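Researcher: First entry.
Model:
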Amino acid sequence: MKIRYKKKRLTSNLIIGIVWTAFALLSLTYNEETRWTDYGYIVIALLYFGQYAYESSKQYLTITKHSIRKNRFFGNSLKLNKIIRIKKFAVDYILQTDKEELTINTDIIEEKSLLELNRILIQVNLPADKTPFA
């Protein structure tokens, strides 16, 4: 199961990529002399387009029967049966095991996916003092 990003986040990455592309095109078109910074605009635009494509395809979290994984370039994962505590801090859920921690920003998760995430975290069956869902 995938926990999805809000459409606003994905759309803003796409729009920012388009804006940086426009800067690059304007700079390359209207400057008499091309500078190395003009190519920096292209690099920044490509990074935003890459982030948009990656986040659109992978989404924020992937939850399987046994684990939860944050889909980042260097994302980490936790086994659901190893979670010993879930803390809520502002808009974040902090899932803790004996040795690791996974922070989930609920502010960037679409509403339907957030309900699904809450349902799954409730099923972890932690004692009432170890979960914000009690």
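Researcher: Second entry.
Model:
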Amino acid sequence: ILFDQVFVPDSVYCEVTKQGLRPGSKEVSQIDWFTIKSPKFSPIPPEILKLDQGEKDVILLALETKADWIILDENLGRKIALNLGCQIKGTLGILLFAYKTNLISKEDTIKAINILSQSSIRLSSNLLEWFLKQL
């Protein structure tokens, strides 16, 4: 098990499963090991107001639950979350952590990267190169 608890903001869950724009949206809709939760954090830090709803909710939920890590890939959201004291992992960071703790094989990690790189998720060539060197 990679995490004891996983919270997913309702806005993010709906974006992934209802809009179906992300790789694995069907699989995510069938997962039962995470908790879907809307943040109730108050007051809202003003610096997050410029983020999209999903990123706002991820940060607010992380602050509310005192999360060990949050998963954010977008640069502005990451910078703001770091400034608010959150620990950040990106999608690639989670994959790398799962690989290094022997939860997934090298082959499955590379398959996941290939799926991500062929989706709407943007991964720079430098980031992909760095990631593959870590395997």
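Model: Note on the second entry: Residues 5 and 34 are 7 Å apart (CA to CA).
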